[in-house]
């Protein structure tokens, strides 16, 4: 009965989502104020809109590490610009740091989640997006990293557990595991380096949702670390990405 109900809920949620190309999408390359190239794109296979940034000195003959960023619930919809900054939600997306030339070694991919659905229900679409992007762009497939905040932190867990073969490292921020609609297939990710970030006083997603999976990972002897803040902030991405240590940590790992 529970499986049947979850199937119905998933269908209803997916049916409410709008997987359509946004008006922002174009084929031309844009440049940030710092001269970093980027594009607003639409992936036909996954039906997901996304923002891609390139290193300032991008050379198609080279292969670059890639970061996939999953945004929070507040950015859902049709406005790709919110992936850069949304003061009413997550604040800075990872694209903002890339466009300021602070992630000069990486290609970054920021997909846009439609209204009425959550990343944890979209792992098949995210997989199709990665298939398309890695076939089209100059990406080092042994250096693909995944991070996300809040709903995107939850999606980071789900996507990595469903498609672990993609990732050389993951960093869920202010996320966690919510049952029954999220699974915790710990065995799928024990070989992936994991750096978790959560705030002890987070009143939007309790740190308890992270502690449970952390204990299971530690019992399985996974390569997992956690940084616990005591700021009371939920959107820790603004702190974590600004500090920058995560990006050096990413680059220390390859598949």
Task: Report what the structure shows.
The chain is α/β, with parallel strands linked by helices. It has a single domain (2-251), classed as Alpha/Beta hydrolase fold, catalytic domain (Rossmann fold), CATH 3.40.50.1820. Helices cover 29% and strands 23% of the residues. The protein contains seven helices and eleven strands. The chain has helices spanning 2-16, 94-99, 123-136, 151-162, 208-219, 237-243, 245-251; strands at 30-31, 37-43, 48-53, 64-70, 85-86, 91-92, 107-111, 139-149, 169-173, 194-199, 224-229. The strands form two sheets. A nine-stranded mixed beta sheet has the order 1-2-3-7-4-8-9-10-11, with helices on both faces. Strands 5-6 form a two-stranded antiparallel ribbon. Strand 5 (85-86) and strand 6 form a beta hairpin. The longest helix has 15 residues, at 2-16. It is globular and about 45 Å long. It starts with a helix and ends with a helix. 40% of the residues are buried. Residues 1-12 have low confidence and may be disordered.
Corresponding CATH superfamily: Alpha/Beta hydrolase fold, catalytic domain
Query: Percent range for helical residues?
Result: 25-40%
User: Would you tell me the structural class of the helices and strands?
Assistant: alpha/beta
Q: Biggest sheet, in brief?
A: 9 strands, mixed
The tally of strands reads: 11
CATH class: Alpha Beta
Number of domains: 1
Low-confidence stretches: 1-12
The Cα radius of gyration reads 17 Å
- Average pLDDT, rounded to a whole number, is 92
Number of helices: 7
* Proportion in β-strands: 15-25%
CATH structural fold name? Rossmann fold
Overall outline: globular
Helix/strand order: HEEEEEEHEHEHEEHEHH
- State the assembly state of the protein chains: single chain
Distance, first to last CA: 40 Å
């Amino acid at each position: 009965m529970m499986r049947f109900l979850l199937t119905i809920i998933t269908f209803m949620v997916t049916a409410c989502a709008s997987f359509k190309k946004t008006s922002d999408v174009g084929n031309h390359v844009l440049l940030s104020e710092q001269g970093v190239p980027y594009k607003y794109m639409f992936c036909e296979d996954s039906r997901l809109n996304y923002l891609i940034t390139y290193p300032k000195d991008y050379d198609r003959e080279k292969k670059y590490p890639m970061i996939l960023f999953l945004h929070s619930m507040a950015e859902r919809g049709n406005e790709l610009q919110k992936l850069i900054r949304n003061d009413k939600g997550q604040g800075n997306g990872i694209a903002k740091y890339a466009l300021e030339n602070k992630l000069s070694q990486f290609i970054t991919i920021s997909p846009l989640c439609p209204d009425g659905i959550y990343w944890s229900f979209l792992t098949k679409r995210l997989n199709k997006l990665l298939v398309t992007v890695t076939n089209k762009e100059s990406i080092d497939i042994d250096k693909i990293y995944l991070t996300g905040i809040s709903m995107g932190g939850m999606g980071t867990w789900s996507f990595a557990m469903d498609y672990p073969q993609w990732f050389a490292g993951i960093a869920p921020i202010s996320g966690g595991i919510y049952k029954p609609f999220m699974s915790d297939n710990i065995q799928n990710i024990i070989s992936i380096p994991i750096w978790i970030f959560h705030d002890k006083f987070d009143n939007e997603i309790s740190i308890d949702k992270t502690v449970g999976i952390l204990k299971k990972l530690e019992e399985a002897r996974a390569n997992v670390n956690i940084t616990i803040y005591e700021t009371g902030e939920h959107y820790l991405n603004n702190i974590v990405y600004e500090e920058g240590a995560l990006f050096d940590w990413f680059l220390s790992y390859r598949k």
